[in-house]
Specification:
72% of the residues lie in helices and 0% in strands. It contains nine helices and no strands. It is globular, with a radius of gyration of 18 Å.
Length: 312
Amino acid sequence: MTAGAPTSSGSPAPAEPPGAPAREGHLSLLAAVAGATLAVQSRINGALRVRVGDAVVAALVSFTVGSLVLVAASLATGRWRAVVRLRHRTRWWWWLGGLSGALLVGSAAAAVPAVGVALTGVAIVAGATTGSLVVDRLGISPRGHQPLTPPRLLGSALAVAGLVVGTVGQGGEVRPLLLALVGFAGFCTALQQAANGHLQRHSGEVLVAASVSFLIGTSALALAVAVTQPAIGEWPANPGLYVGGLGGAAYIALGAFTVARIGVLRLTLGTVAGQLVGGVLLDAFVPTAAGLSAASVAAALFTVAAVVVANR
């Protein structure tokens, strides 16, 4: 086992050896790639939501696909055997990370057609950055306690300011309650990353932790659909509208792997960078009805500044 790798007993991993910052830089780059896949996932799920007529149904499709991919990968590689390590000494909240993911995917699917990928991403960023500060401060992530330094606080404030800037001059296109819901979902993703990180360290397998998270989220969404029984508009023939869950699967797996090494805030910042770039490019070159506004670009710039400041 390499230094810093998770132990099957769930005990703290040894400190990284010299040279670890370079490896952490690579992990941050991978987090940025995962963030870009989240922007694509939001666009796909938003388009699916328009066709089927319900955000929860679209989220359920996304989670089901992600769950199938992760479980199949676990079975094919033999990693599923590590699930037996989760029978002992786990905490109840470690199992609930998927609920946050379900809320995020559902709210994003509802928001993207109305306000665009970029502004939806800003709302998520504001919530996720604030949530990451709280989680790191409380020390509930596998990384342990992280102090509330001035750069971290200033970065969080800039992220929230970006959300405010993004709502300026938008007229009837602004949906404050919808953006607030997406921001809350973003906040909850910090708890999700901490929970998934603990599952990964306890089991020693990324695919096991990611599969548990996705299966819990899928179950919650299936229950919501069963209770609400929404009317379905039409099931699109385009298979590309059903693959949004692949981006979520990549994001969750990567997050579970990296959070113990770089912490919740740094993981969030890496994801934010990729998500914002991906969101702005999508809104610019493949626009929705909302399009890409100057306010959304300004909000993205504010949030990029938040990433730079908080990472110092």
